[in-house]
Amino acid sequence: MTKLKDFRITPENSFYGTGKRKESVARVWILPEQPGRFLVKVTRTGKEYDLRNYVQRETLFNKVMLPFKVTKTEGKFGIYATVEGGGISSQAEALMYGVARALLSHNPDLRNQLKKAGLLTRDAREKERKKYAQMGARAKYRWSKR
Protein backbone atom coordinates (compact mmCIF):
# COMPACT_ATOMS: atom_id res chain seq x y z
CA MET A 1 0.00 0.00 0.00
CA THR A 2 1.35 3.43 -0.87
CA LYS A 3 1.40 6.07 1.80
CA LEU A 4 -0.47 9.29 1.12
CA LYS A 5 1.86 11.30 3.37
CA ASP A 6 5.13 11.86 1.53
CA PHE A 7 6.27 14.95 3.43
CA ARG A 8 8.02 15.48 6.75
CA ILE A 9 6.25 17.47 9.46
CA THR A 10 8.52 19.69 11.53
CA PRO A 11 7.82 22.63 13.86
CA GLU A 12 9.25 24.93 11.16
CA ASN A 13 6.76 23.92 8.45
CA SER A 14 3.60 23.23 10.48
CA PHE A 15 1.35 24.43 13.31
CA TYR A 16 -0.16 22.01 15.86
CA GLY A 17 -3.48 21.84 17.70
CA THR A 18 -5.29 19.16 19.72
CA GLY A 19 -9.05 18.73 19.52
CA LYS A 20 -11.29 16.57 21.73
CA ARG A 21 -14.96 15.63 21.62
CA LYS A 22 -16.67 12.82 23.58
CA GLU A 23 -14.17 9.92 23.40
CA SER A 24 -12.40 11.23 20.28
CA VAL A 25 -8.98 12.84 20.24
CA ALA A 26 -7.56 14.51 17.13
CA ARG A 27 -3.97 15.68 16.80
CA VAL A 28 -3.92 18.20 13.95
CA TRP A 29 -1.07 19.80 12.03
CA ILE A 30 -1.86 22.53 9.50
CA LEU A 31 0.67 22.88 6.72
CA PRO A 32 1.07 26.18 4.84
CA GLU A 33 3.34 24.47 2.27
CA GLN A 34 0.76 21.80 1.32
CA PRO A 35 -2.46 23.76 0.54
CA GLY A 36 -5.51 21.70 -0.35
CA ARG A 37 -4.07 18.42 0.97
CA PHE A 38 -6.18 16.90 3.76
CA LEU A 39 -4.98 13.60 5.26
CA VAL A 40 -6.25 11.66 8.26
CA LYS A 41 -4.43 8.77 9.91
CA VAL A 42 -6.49 6.43 12.07
CA THR A 43 -4.34 5.43 15.04
CA ARG A 44 -6.14 2.13 15.66
CA THR A 45 -5.55 0.73 12.17
CA GLY A 46 -2.55 2.79 11.09
CA LYS A 47 -4.21 3.59 7.74
CA GLU A 48 -4.23 7.00 6.07
CA TYR A 49 -7.25 8.43 4.27
CA ASP A 50 -8.16 11.55 2.37
CA LEU A 51 -10.29 13.64 4.76
CA ARG A 52 -13.28 13.93 2.40
CA ASN A 53 -13.40 10.13 1.95
CA TYR A 54 -12.89 9.47 5.66
CA VAL A 55 -15.71 11.63 7.05
CA GLN A 56 -18.00 10.45 4.20
CA ARG A 57 -20.67 13.16 4.64
CA GLU A 58 -20.35 16.63 3.14
CA THR A 59 -21.78 18.21 6.31
CA LEU A 60 -19.00 16.71 8.44
CA PHE A 61 -16.36 17.81 5.92
CA ASN A 62 -17.78 21.37 6.04
CA LYS A 63 -17.71 21.22 9.85
CA VAL A 64 -13.98 20.37 9.80
CA MET A 65 -13.36 23.24 7.35
CA LEU A 66 -15.41 25.77 9.37
CA PRO A 67 -12.39 27.38 11.13
CA PHE A 68 -10.86 28.14 7.71
CA LYS A 69 -14.14 29.70 6.52
CA VAL A 70 -14.52 31.82 9.66
CA THR A 71 -10.96 33.16 9.41
CA LYS A 72 -11.06 33.48 5.58
CA THR A 73 -8.01 31.23 5.13
CA GLU A 74 -9.55 28.61 2.80
CA GLY A 75 -7.07 27.13 0.37
CA LYS A 76 -4.02 28.40 2.27
CA PHE A 77 -3.35 25.31 4.42
CA GLY A 78 -3.23 21.55 4.20
CA ILE A 79 -4.19 19.28 7.10
CA TYR A 80 -2.48 16.20 8.48
CA ALA A 81 -4.25 14.66 11.47
CA THR A 82 -4.29 11.53 13.57
CA VAL A 83 -7.60 10.50 15.15
CA GLU A 84 -8.54 7.90 17.72
CA GLY A 85 -11.60 6.90 19.73
CA GLY A 86 -15.28 7.65 19.27
CA GLY A 87 -17.20 7.61 16.00
CA ILE A 88 -16.87 9.49 12.72
CA SER A 89 -19.08 12.39 13.85
CA SER A 90 -17.25 13.08 17.11
CA GLN A 91 -13.90 12.65 15.32
CA ALA A 92 -14.98 15.29 12.79
CA GLU A 93 -15.81 17.72 15.62
CA ALA A 94 -12.50 16.92 17.33
CA LEU A 95 -10.76 17.70 14.01
CA MET A 96 -12.64 21.01 13.85
CA TYR A 97 -11.45 22.01 17.34
CA GLY A 98 -7.91 20.89 16.49
CA VAL A 99 -7.85 22.95 13.28
CA ALA A 100 -9.09 26.01 15.20
CA ARG A 101 -6.34 25.62 17.81
CA ALA A 102 -3.69 25.10 15.13
CA LEU A 103 -4.85 28.28 13.35
CA LEU A 104 -4.56 30.08 16.68
CA SER A 105 -0.96 28.90 17.10
CA HIS A 106 -0.27 30.10 13.53
CA ASN A 107 -1.78 33.55 14.09
CA PRO A 108 -2.94 34.66 17.58
CA ASP A 109 -4.79 37.61 15.99
CA LEU A 110 -7.49 35.18 14.79
CA ARG A 111 -8.59 34.52 18.39
CA ASN A 112 -11.56 36.94 18.36
CA GLN A 113 -13.01 35.49 15.15
CA LEU A 114 -12.63 31.89 16.33
CA LYS A 115 -13.98 32.70 19.81
CA LYS A 116 -17.02 34.51 18.38
CA ALA A 117 -17.83 31.46 16.22
CA GLY A 118 -17.55 29.20 19.30
CA LEU A 119 -14.64 27.19 17.89
CA LEU A 120 -12.34 27.55 20.91
CA THR A 121 -14.88 26.28 23.46
CA ARG A 122 -14.63 22.52 23.91
CA ASP A 123 -17.99 20.73 23.90
CA ALA A 124 -17.72 19.04 27.30
CA ARG A 125 -20.75 16.74 26.97
CA GLU A 126 -19.76 13.15 27.71
CA LYS A 127 -21.64 9.87 27.84
CA GLU A 128 -23.43 9.38 31.15
CA ARG A 129 -22.38 6.25 33.01
CA LYS A 130 -24.62 3.25 33.54
CA LYS A 131 -25.93 2.93 37.11
CA TYR A 132 -26.16 -0.35 39.05
CA ALA A 133 -29.60 -2.01 39.27
CA GLN A 134 -30.64 -0.17 36.08
CA MET A 135 -30.65 -1.07 32.39
CA GLY A 136 -28.62 1.97 31.39
CA ALA A 137 -27.80 5.52 32.41
CA ARG A 138 -31.47 6.52 32.71
CA ALA A 139 -33.52 3.48 31.61
CA LYS A 140 -34.85 1.38 34.46
CA TYR A 141 -35.98 -2.26 34.60
CA ARG A 142 -39.76 -2.69 34.52
CA TRP A 143 -41.29 -2.62 37.97
CA SER A 144 -44.07 -5.01 38.89
CA LYS A 145 -46.18 -4.49 41.98
CA ARG A 146 -47.13 -8.20 42.21
Structure commentary:
The protein is α+β, with helices and mostly antiparallel strands and 146 residues long. It has a domain at 15-116: Ribosomal Protein S5, domain 2, CATH 3.30.230.10. 30% of the residues lie in helices and 21% in strands. The chain is built from four helices and five strands. It has helices at residues 51-55, 58-71, 88-106, 111-116; strands spanning 15-21, 24-31, 38-42, 48-50, 78-84. Strands 1-2-5-3-4 form a five-stranded mixed sheet. Strand 1 (15-21) and strand 2 (24-31) form a beta hairpin. Helix 2 (58-71) runs parallel beside helix 3. The longest helix is centred in the middle third of the chain and has 19 residues, at 88-106. The radius of gyration is 18 Å and the shape is elongated. The mean pLDDT is 91.
Quick recap:
The protein is α+β, with helices and mostly antiparallel strands and 146 residues long. It has helices at residues 51-55, 58-71, 88-106, 111-116; strands at residues 15-21, 24-31, 38-42, 48-50, 78-84.
